[in-house]
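Following the same procedure, sequence and fold were stored together, as reproduced here:

>
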Amino acid sequence: MGLPTVPFLVYGMREDYAKANPQNARAFTAAYRDAVAVLMTNDEVWAEQGARLKLSPEALVFFKEQVRRDLLKSFTPDMNKGLASTLDALNAVAPEVVGLKAMPGNLLSMDYQ
């Protein structure tokens, strides 16, 4: 489809909260990076969660490889434009399903990275 690389799963907080508590926003971002590092390097975590999810060994390998390939390790300012382009593409084919006409401005802030 020619769409850019953008996050499709994000964690967020209200802008007013982040501005009032920048140390919390930075700590959350650091914790996210730490979690990504664990997922990228620690096979024991995958084995533990795979067992919990009752994945077969083959399914676990596939899932781990897919997530490691697709997990975003950092965010860039261009991703805001990419998210807007992705939303436009979705709205072009199924606006009744999407429910969001336009992306909120500057959805991804780089202020706390």
Remarks:
- The chain has six helices and no strands.
- The first helix runs from residue 15 to 20.
